[in-house]
UniProtKB/TrEMBL annotation:
GO MF: O-acyltransferase activity
Pfam annotation, one family: LCAT
Gene Ontology biological process terms, A to Z: lipid metabolic process
Protein name: Acetyltransferases and hydrolases with the alpha/beta hydrolase fold protein
Length: 674
């Protein structure tokens, strides 16, 4: 080689090394960093890159996830990348390497050399939907050395707590027309409830609704989570745990969507997975304990099922950092009470006792995916002995009960029959909005999503390293079945579809969830089951976390202290008789004990809502359409009062009940005329 050629070669080599060496410490995105076949919707400004939201797969306002894949390594979800996807919006991911995303995502990769990088967007309907890819030329600074390990905890090394509240237990807000924040839940009136209505596909009609906090203090009637919050705050102030977090969520939405897509807050969307990860990262034990109430337990199970799938896919091992799961009054396989609630809007209490009118309650629940998730699942029908729906057909051959009996027999005995009934398989037409005594037919699409959820979480088996605790409330009248009777009608139109409905009760529950559903996972060897006796207390399903016995149990569990006997490990027995009085009439039904304590309905003036007052110990007040029901297990010296002088014509009925049996009262009771 001649001297001139050698000098030219050395000069070119110097230029090559200068351009493509490892000198840059921050990776800049320029045209030289990418291969030539970038999608036309790709965007770069040399310091960031993005992608026009693909309209073929996503709808406006959909939350999407970013995933990143390096060479042939499995793709990993980049949690910081999720955004609300609006049509034709450009996504930015600025200064990716100065933020250390590649290094943090692939810590073992040598980023000083070139790699093939693929970014793609995903939603639950179509993973790997759209992506773009590019080649790097290297030059990214190597991963910095890990910081020195944190000091090892030696005293009170207990886990941080993640709390998942129940249905309707997170406040919901929107921005009013005047620019001020408007609280929609807890509602101030029916207009707030109407603002929460949903489209037939389950999406919110108002896309600007967000959440921020859970409901701790009720409106001067009943507290929900105040005592629980005080208890866990005490663990923090006493330095037993470092912190805890409540995860408020839009309870109208699908459980799986909350887990996969996070929850919209006022200024950001907060990921449930990231919330759990942050608690693990700051925990003394390096782990987190999950406490979940009611519908929050379905979210917890869906979350842990996802994390277990992530571990199996090699994405993360976060599921191993959950040491204890405490499920409190969780309708794991559904609740029979959801059937009349969704079909009729019956007994839909707003938290702390307020009663929605049935028309608004049913319209809110008609397209609410979370409500569908509370309906009895296939496992409920298979495992719980009581049929959720029964039918009585007597002397009215044209009545709808005749058609129901012809289609399903006297009781729903299989899941296929149950599903057909909910979807209107016997051929009923959808009633008018205000005809709440007639059942609506449920959306097949929304019901299919609820089926998919339960097919997943009902089959979930917790890892053997996780301690699972199920707490079931017991001793309160809980709907076990809903019975349809024919009702005489003189009108010429629609008489064949006139119904009378009667709830059937068991004491094996907390007023909402029966024990077999709340203790469904107990067939797994590492699951512990407990009963909390709510008889002789003023707590029920809604405010069960106000129970001092339960709070002591949870506190001791977090601190790994011996558990006392406040909760039972064996089923309680109920030998008491219970008096149930029902009246089918527009009149009210009120009960008073010897101390003038009242159980009944109170309607404040100038309010859209009435509320149920239940001041007599072991009493309850329910409404199902025109039927009012008062239950009391301590009915000595009780007086019953109705403002109607013609109470006999109003259809007053008496009954007594043992834990599993309803029979007509065999003795005469005297009514007080006061």
């Amino acid at each position: 080689m001649s001297t001139i050629k050698l000098l030219r070669f050395l000069f070119a080599l110097v230029i090559f090394v200068s351009v493509f060496s490892f000198t840059p410490k921050v990776f800049a995105f320029t045209s030289s960093n990418f291969n030539s076949n970038i999608n036309t919707s790709f965007y770069t400004d040399n310091t960031s890159y993005g992608f026009t939201c693909p309209t073929s797969h996503f709808t406006s306002g959909m939350y999407v996830d970013y995933y990143i894949a390096l060479d042939n390594l499995p793709p990993v979800r980049v949690s910081a990348g999720g955004e609300i996807c609006y049509q034709h919006q450009v996504f930015h991911y600025s200064d990716i390497d100065s933020a250390g995303i590649l290094a943090a995502t692939f810590p073992t990769a040598d980023l000083t050399i070139g790699h093939h990088v693929r970014f793609f967007f995903s939603n639950s309907a179509d993973p790997n939907a759209d992506y773009f890819e590019f080649d790097t030329n290297g030059g990214i600074a190597p991963t910095p050395p890990s910081p020195p390990p944190s000091p090892v905890c030696t005293v009170d090394c207990f886990s941080n707590v993640l709390f998942l509240p129940g249905l309707e237990a997170s406040r919901l807000y929107t921005q009013g027309s005047d620019g001020n924040e408007d609280q929609l839940w807890e509602p101030g009136g029916n207009s707030d409830v109407e603002a929460l209505y949903l489209n037939p596909d389950g999406t919110s009609k108002n896309g600007n609704i967000y959440t921020r906090d859970i409901i701790d203090l009720g409106h001067n009637i009943k507290n929900i989570y105040k005592s629980f919050s005080d208890t866990v705050n005490g663990l923090v102030s006493n330095q037993k745990i470092n912190t805890w977090k409540e995860y408020a969520y839009d309870w109208r939405q699908d459980v799986q969507s909350i887990v996969d897509n996070g929850t919209k807050y006022q200024t950001e969307t907060i990921s449930l997975v990231d919330t759990l990860q942050s608690l693990v990262d700051s925990s003394k034990s390096g782990k987190a304990t999950i406490v979940a109430h009611s519908n929050g337990g379905l979210i917890a199970k869906a979350l842990l099922k996802k994390l277990q799938d992530d571990k199996n896919a090699g994405i993360n091992n976060l599921v191993d950092n959950v040491d204890v799961l405490i499920l409190v009054a969780v309708p794991e396989i559904g609740t029979s009470k959801a059937v009349p609630a969704v079909l009729h809007g019956y007994d839909q209490r707003i938290l702390f006792g307020f009663l929605q009118d049935e028309t608004h309650a049913r319209e809110l629940g008609r397209n609410m995916l979370s409500a569908f998730g509370l309906l009895p699942s296939r496992e409920y029908i298979n495992r719980v002995s009581a049929s959720p729906v029964t039918f009585v057909d007597t002397i009215i051959p044209s009545n709808v009960t005749t058609k129901l009996v012809q289609a399903f027999g006297s009781a729903i005995n299989s899941y296929d029959e149950y599903k057909s009934f909910l979807l209107g398989g016997e051929g009923r037409t959808d009633p008018a909005i205000n005809q709440t005594n007639l059942p609506i037919s449920l959306s097949p699409n929304l019901f299919a999503k609820a089926e998919s959820l339960h097919n997943s979480i009902d089959a979930w088996i917790p890892p053997t390293s996780m301690r699972v605790i199920e707490v079931a409330g017991w001793g309160l009248d809980t709907i076990a079945s809903f019975e349809y009777y024919p009702k005489l009608c003189t009108a010429s139109v629609g008489c064949g579809f006139t119904l009378d409905e009667r709830p059937r009760f068991t004491s094996d529950g907390d007023g909402t969830v029966v024990v077999p559903s709340a203790q469904y996972t107990s067939f797994v060897s590492n699951t512990e089951k407990y009963w909390l006796n709510l008889l002789n207390t003023k707590n029920d399903h809604t405010d069960i976390l106000e129970s001092s016995h339960l709070l002591s149990f949870i506190s001791n569990t977090v601190q790994k202290l011996p558990l006392d006997s406040s909760l039972s490990t064996i089923p309680p027995t109920d030998s008491s008789s219970r008096l149930r009085l029902s009246i089918h009439s527009p009149v009210t039904l009120d009960a008073y004990d010897a101390e003038s304590n009242h159980t009944g309905k109170i309607c404040p003036p100038n309010s859209d809502f009435c509320y149920a007052e239940e001041n007599i110990l072991n009493s309850s007040y329910l409404e199902f359409g025109a039927k009012k029901l008062d239950t009391n297990s301590d009915f000595e010296d009780e007086r019953v009062r109705s403002p109607s002088p013609a109470i006999g014509g109003a259809g007053l009925r008496f009954a007594t009940a043992s834990p599993s049996l309803w029979q007509e009262m065999k003795r005469i009771l005297m009514l007080s005329g006061e």
